[in-house]
Structure formats: C-alpha cells, structure tokens
Structures
1.
Amino acid sequence: MRVWRVFFGFLLAVVLLVGLPQTAHAASSGAIRAIDDVKATTKDYSGQNLIRAEFSNVRLSGSNFSGADLRGAVFSGSDLTKSNWKGVDFGDGIAYITDLSGADLSDAVLTSAMMIGSVFKDANITGADFSFAVLDRSQVVELCKRASGTNPKTGISTRESLECP
C-alpha cells in the first residue's frame, strides 16, 4: 500500500512541478493567495484561515501557525524551523523542500499532505495525523522513532498514520 502512495505522490509532484495547462478563472475568495519573502512580514498566523495560501521561499523560523486552517496551502523552499503548528489542519497541503526542524506539529492534521524533500529533525509530532501523507522514506523512519499519541480531531494514532512497524 505504501508503495502505491509513494508512486502516486511522485506522480502528483511531477504534475505540480511540470504543470498542466490551466484554464483562467475569475478571482474569488477561494483564489490562491501568494505570500513571499516581501509579504511575509508577520510571524503570527495563529488561528487564521489560510486555505490554499502559497508561501514560497519564506523565512518564518519561530513563526506561529497554531490552530490555523492550512488546508491545501503550499510551502515551497521555506524555513519553518522551530515554528508552532500545534493543532493546524494541513490536509491536502504541500510542503516541498521545507525545513520543519524543531517545529511543534503536535495534534496537527497532515492527512494527504505532500511533503517530499521536507525535513522534520527534532519536530514534536505527538498526536499528529500523517494518514496518506507522502514523505521521504528516510523521514518516516526517523519520525517513527518518536511517534506517539493520538490525534484529538481524527482519532488516529501518529504511529498508525505513519505506518510505523
């Protein structure tokens, strides 16, 4: 099962990186909001609705996203070391080549997130739900060494969501 998830995750990454022809859409409240280095002037995003927001090459070490709605958000090449992601919903999100070392991901919902090339060294993942998330195998092995707890929102154990042995 894990092999298929990795395959489909790789396929999704290729599609996202290569791109497909896009049809034009009128701007709406559901449009993607780009937040780059220039716009990332705050480090407190706690509790905010950041659905489908795009953070590209931002340096937000020590930032606070606790309780934020990050469903479908994109972080690309970003520094989120020691950031607070406690209780965030990052379902269907993308964190490509993003550094989450030392971050607090406790009780976070990371279901179906694409997190290829991201680093989680010393991150607190107690109660995090990684169900169907796509991560580098080496990161999963390291995360399983400290995986514990059950996500209060989904009821899934962190070890089960990572498919730890």
2.
Amino acid sequence: MKHVEITVRVRYQETDQMGFVYYSNYLVYFEMGRIEYLRNLGLPYSELEKESIFLAVVESHCKYRSPARFDDLLIIKTWLSKMKNASVEFCYEIRRRDEENLIAEGSTILACLDENRRPRTIPDKIKTAVKGSGLNT
C-alpha cells in the first residue's frame, strides 16, 4: 500500500457564505485520510493511543487550487512521504470524484509523543507496518 483514497461528501455545514468549503475543513479532510491510512496499515489510531503512542501535528500546509462546494464527492488521497526518528510526514491530494484537477494539496508533519507528551522514537510496530506497505523511507 503506497497510498489510501477515501471518499467524502461535502456537508452543508462545511461551507461558507460563498458556498465554498471553508478553508480549515481541508485540514479535517487531511486528518480523515491520515486516520484511514493508519487503519489500513493495521494501526488504528485508537489502539495506538491505548499503547501511549500519540502523533501530534506540529506543522501543516495546504495549497488551495479550486473551491469545493456543498454535495461534491471528494477523493482524498493520502500517503506517508517521510519517516524520521521521531516524526512522520503525510501528503494529501483532494479532487472531485471522476476529475483530474486538484482542489487542494498539502502535507502534515506529526511528532511521535509518549504518555507524558514528550517526544519519543517511532515504535518498531509502526516502522514494521510502514515497511511492509512498500514505502521506502
């Protein structure tokens, strides 16, 4: 697995007065993609937290290319682009279903934290799952 794609329908409450998806909702879409990516690796985030493994967003970027609107079906493509000793970087692309044009693209960097919310190395179970997915980090 090199990437995961999920489909999201834009809800009315996610739009602004102009009828466009409000900019901060793209970060929510990124999170939805990231959670599914981890789940597809066999690493549900709820299980990681039970093991005192926390992934905290420390940096995010989003480039808006074209507005999404209420009721659009969006495809959120997510992949892990980089893994360092104590952090991971995810990348994202958002398109309307059956269209090639990008609506938004971006990335997030997440730090791995322990139960005291202090940085820790990425656990072996995550490294193994990522390596088994075909990603070369």
3.
Amino acid sequence: MSLSAADLLGLLGHFMLLSLLAVGGAITTAADMHRYIVAQHGWITDAQFTSSIAIAQAAPGPNVLFVAVLGWNVAGPLGAAVTLIGTLLPSTLLTLYTTRWAAQRREALAVRAFTTGMAPLTIGLLLATGWVLAEPFVRDPAHRWGALALIAVTIAVMNRSRISPIWLVGLGALVGAFGFA
C-alpha cells in the first residue's frame, strides 16, 4: 500500500505523540496503534497487526522493533522509517533531558511522587495492549477457551513464580501450533 504524504505525516505525528505516552516501552501504546492503523484507517487487518507484533517480539533485538514491522506493513520501507523515527525521537530527547534534570532533584517530593505514580499507569497500558492482542482469539469460538486458558495460566504463573516470561511465550507458541488458541 502506498500512503500519501499527508497520511505519512499523520502517521509520523501520531507515533510521535504515542512516543511521549509510552511509559514502560512502546508496547504499552500498541492498543492505540491498533486503533489508529487498523480501526481508524484500515491500512492493515487485525491479523496483520497481531502477526507484526508476534514476529517482532520473537526476533532477537529490542522490543521496539514491532513498530518498524507495523510501519513496513502499512507503507513499506518508508512506513518503517516513519514509525520508527516517530517512536524513537521524541521519547529519546525527553528522556535525555528529564534524566539529567531528575538526577539533580532525586530527593524532591515531586520527583518521587511522579516515579511512584508511573507504576499503575504502566500496568494499565500493558493490560490494554494485552487485550488488543488477545481479543481476536477470544472472540473466535474455535479459539476462545484455549486463549482464555492461556491468559489465565500466564497471569497465575507471572503472579506466583519467578519463571522467565520466555517460557510462557514458548507455551503460547505450542498452544498456537496445535491449534488450541
């Protein structure tokens, strides 16, 4: 698909905005990326969106790679560049500035309160992302119970053990390979 210059600028602007909201990493804003790319513009399908994230997360390297895969699926190499620049530039510049500023004011009440307040925000954004990725499988009657069981097992294991999440990713791959979810 070839996007117009206006669409590419809109994509860049949207990803720049999301970059500033990505507390906990770019994956926390995947729910809004889905809304913008799939629901609002229809540039890719639900399946393409979910597959883009799965492929990028399975590949070695930083987790933010999924943004480039999404951009590639929307508009080829230029789309990958636009989404990656939009995601990396604002948050990098903001992080550089605020890290230096906060280091000088580490004990200030406002800095400690801000840091403490970020935890629930990050958890909420991760839950929204998890739901966007799971929803197509939960809606599908053929995969519903397998997907819900996999979600329940993942939550239970993560809450009650120190097992690496990579084992749960492997479990999800096996369950998917056998067609249960």
